[in-house]
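PROTEIN DATA CARD
Card holder: N-formylglutamate deformylase
Chain length: 269
Origin: Ohtaekwangia koreensis
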Amino acid sequence: MLHEEPFKIYRPTVPAVPILVSVPHCGVAFPRDIRSQYKTSLIEAPDDTDWFVDRLYDFAPSMGMTMITAIYSRWVIDLNRDPDSKPLYSDGRIITALCPSTTFLGEPLYIDNRKEVAEAEVARRHTLYYQPYHDKIQQLLDEMRAAFGTVLLWDCHSIRQVVTTIQKEKFPDLILGDADGKSAAPNLIQTTLDILSSDSFSVSHNHPFKGGTITRTFGKPAENQHALQLEMPKVHYMDDTEIYYHEGRAKHMQQLLKRNFQHLISQLR
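Structure generated from the sequence above:
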């Protein structure tokens, strides 16, 4: 079923602060008009989903932050990819297209095993699902900037602990991306690195992820519009099978995230 908008908005439940939380890869829905084209065994539980990241960050409105989350699967269209499918990295890793035809591991998504989605269909999905999400982000940031002067977009992601098509070893616990320092002011980056490093997690900066298209597009420090991306292996809020939400692990991570946001809010003010 096609939703009126391809996203959900969660407004602050306390006085607002100038932070927008974006979760572009938590969607699991497939539009009815194309659902039958996919392999049923895959879309019943789309494996490349950032499972439960919207649940992990569900405290955001209670801290005054607005949150936007995706409804449709990244297998329909990837909201964090370049709109022309230009590679975000050049180190040989597998990078799926704007409208993927395979999983991260190279498994065909479609019943007909197509190698790519037709250009006209990509354009149609871009209009229906991709552009509205990006337009809404900018609208929300503009509203916040008008009210506060300075705003921060925090883009939330998770990944399997090991994805050999990206790198052979396990990923670090927390990976902060800021487009090599271009998407946010140095004080916001350093504050975040300091807080994330204050716990027991290993922290990496811009490696192996430096922020996707959302971070790179909306991070404009010279315009008082900042963006940061946080990537983490799913085992830090899910169980070891990376299937089920783990309340204990999630609570620990949420405590760290909340502490980080408290410091960022102070910095922005």
